[in-house]
Design brief:
With 230 residues, the protein is α/β, with parallel strands linked by helices. Helix content is 38%, strand content 22%. The strands form 3 sheets. It has a 5-stranded parallel sheet with strand order 2-1-3-4-5, with helices on both faces. It has a 4-stranded antiparallel sheet with strand order 6-7-8-9, covered by helices on one side. A 3-stranded antiparallel sheet has the order 10-12-11. Helix 1 (11-23) links the parallel strand 1 (3-7) and strand 2 (27-31). Helix 2 (34-43) runs parallel beside helix 3 (60-69), helix 6 packs across helix 8 (194-207) and helix 7 (178-184) crosses helix 8. 38% of the residues are buried. Bound molecules: calcium ion. Residues 9-10, 52, 54-55 line the site of calcium ion.
Length: 230
């Protein structure tokens, strides 16, 4: 059963989320502050985090930043819970490595659908091709362990960044459009903009230096992985 950590301080929303997530068969833990949330994450194993942005102590963006900088937590999908008027926080949050967001007041059905997409991603890498380890110079992409290393150092990629890299690197020389990439990496159901892809690509590039040069921007199309000698 998937284990979900809800980091949210409003009691009504805590109750609503706990009830609905449990009904879907998830194991739910609720933390009311950012610090409690991080503490909980380091104590247990979680498959997904629902993260409120406005918390009484650290804000959600900081929690996101801390998670993504921690190799043990970097791969856990994060869905942000944001209030209306927090558009700049949404862009910032995606930039920090959150995978998706819903705006309060959200529809429970929509949130559950998004959670399903994010949880499904852990197991659907088969859809992206065989689980073959890819090595391009000192960049190693291991789809079984969902791990990327650059010169043997683990790159702390989010699952979305991992899928993006794995997909592009599996099809070198082919340019893909932004919406096409969203489909391939399992973002097809989320109401995202093509800008989301740019944010993911920017983050990905910053984490795989010097091999960021392999991900080429193709003007008017999207992105392509270079055809390079292995
Ligand atoms: Ca709040």
């Amino acid at each position: 059963m998937p284990r979900i950590l809800v980091i949210e301080d409003e009691p009504d929303i805590q109750t609503l989320l706990r009830f609905n997530l449990q009904r879907e068969g998830h194991v739910v833990t609720v933390a009311g502050t950012g610090n409690d949330g991080l503490h909980e994450l380091r104590r247990g194993h979680y498959d997904l985090v629902l993260l409120d942005l406005m918390l009484p102590d650290r804000d959600g963006l900081e929690v996101c930043r801390v998670m993504r900088a921690d190799a043990g937590l970097a791969g856990i999908p994060i869905i942000m819970l944001t209030a209306k008027g927090e558009e700049s926080d949404i862009v910032l949050g995606l930039g920090l490595g959150a995978d998706d967001y819903v705006t309060k007041p959200f529809r429970v059905k929509e949130l559950m659908a998004r959670i399903k997409v994010r949880l499904g991603r852990v197991d659907d890498s088969e859809a992206l091709g065989p689980k073959k380890r890819l090595q391009i110079q000192n960049l190693v992409i291991d789809p079984v362990r969902h791990r990327v290393t650059v010169s043997e150092e683990v790159a702390p990629l989010t699952l979305t960044e991992f899928k993006l890299l794995h997909f592009l690197a599996s099809h070198p020389g082919i340019a893909y459009g932004r919406y096409d990439l969203l489909d391939r990496i399992g973002d097809g159901e989320a109401a995202v903009t093509d800008r989301t892809v740019d944010v993911h690509v920017r983050n990905l590039r910053s984490k795989i230096k010097p091999y960021d040069r392999f991900i080429e921007t193709v003007r008017g199309v999207g992105y392509r992985f270079s055809e390079v000698e292995a």
